[in-house]
Automatic annotation (TrEMBL):
Lipid biosynthesis among keywords: no
Domain of life of the organism encoding this protein: Bacteria
Protein's name in the database: Alpha/beta hydrolase
GO cellular component, one term: membrane
InterPro entries, alphabetized: AB_hydrolase_1, AB_hydrolase_fold, AB_hydrolase_sf
Single GO MF annotation: hydrolase activity
PANTHER family assigned: HYDROLASE, PUTATIVE (AFU_ORTHOLOGUE AFUA_2G14860)-RELATED, MONOACYLGLYCEROL LIPASE
Signal peptide limits: none
UniProt entry keywords in alphabetical sequence: Hydrolase
Domain AB hydrolase-1: 8-94
Keyword Hydrolase among UniProt keywords: yes
Amino acid sequence: MPRRMHASLARTLASAGAHVVTLDLLGHGRSDKPDDPFAYSITAFAEQVVALLDHLGAQQAVIGGTSLGANVTLEVAATAPERVRGILVEMPVLDNALEVAIVSFAPLLLTARVFPFAVSGLRFVTRRVPRGIVPWWVGIGLDTVDHKPGPLAAYVHGLFFGHVAPPAAQRRRITAPALVIGHPRDPLHPASDAEMLAGELPNSTFERAKSILEWRRSPERLDLVATKFVLGCWRPARRSRRTAN
């Protein structure tokens, strides 16, 4: 999905005083979409996040993402912990999502490789729908399927044949404050993965969404949870009082 899927949350965090930057990873939104499968991996995406921090001159940031973005967030925290003030992870795709992920994304790879005209035809139709006349989330969905067959196949290929998240041993060594949000009844992003991750991270809080659509249709509760977490990551640590002997 393009970065504007997080526009509402970004505005909420910014209104609370946070400096918020959203990005389109390679292959997403307005970023380049090369045909090379080796250009796409969780590792490469994490490197792009760190490169953006370098470009902005930001020594540290609270890193966050949804689904693929959640996994990229974990990779950044595992490989560049000194740049991470905290992590906000929604719907991670880990061990319990493996079978559904294969069933969901393998047909995309097959279609893009064997039936590229189907991908091109869908893109031809969706690009002609004016985004201004459809609901905001419908526009996000239309932008999500706006792919040429070559880059789409390369994208799925690259993710399939690379590791999708840091292994459990690395995840347990992530000490940054973490907010993990899981959804019930979501086979691609099972709540069991989010709960497992929250149990692995030594400094984490788990928040269960009421449904997969809560943060999209009624975002007030989770926006408040996320805002408190992000602002809390920047509060100075309390000094312990010294007692006189």
